Here is the input.
Amino acid sequence: MVSPLAEMISRRRVSMDDKRARNGSVKHEKTCLVCGKNFETFYPNKTYCSYECSNKAHLDGMKAAKEAGRPTFTAQDRTCGVCGKTFKSHHYRRRYCSASCSKSAISAQHAEKKRQRTNKPVVLHEN
Ligand SMILES: [Zn+2]
Ligand SMILES: [Zn+2]
Here is the structure.
């Protein structure tokens, strides 16, 4: 004799199979990777319950990729290219101890460029 519960389950299973056969697609039970909610989908590759969750996952992924791609840089001691002072650099491109030093470095570069442009032949031997 079949228990009422088992009968109910088997009947339910049949009706589910029925549905499946009718619309021709298989429903997948999935757990959303973002919010952890269980959801049903016809798409086997779907991993998020909603557009919001997939969007959030996409943004998080971009953030993670950005962080992974960033060069790891720890503060290090550098010598200023202008005044020769030692300073702690927190940026991998920083080469001068202060704004005024980087400013004077830039103007020195400009002066150098200007000098190269005019490039007057230097007379070395003037007897
Ligand atoms: Zn979700
Ligand atoms: Zn300096």
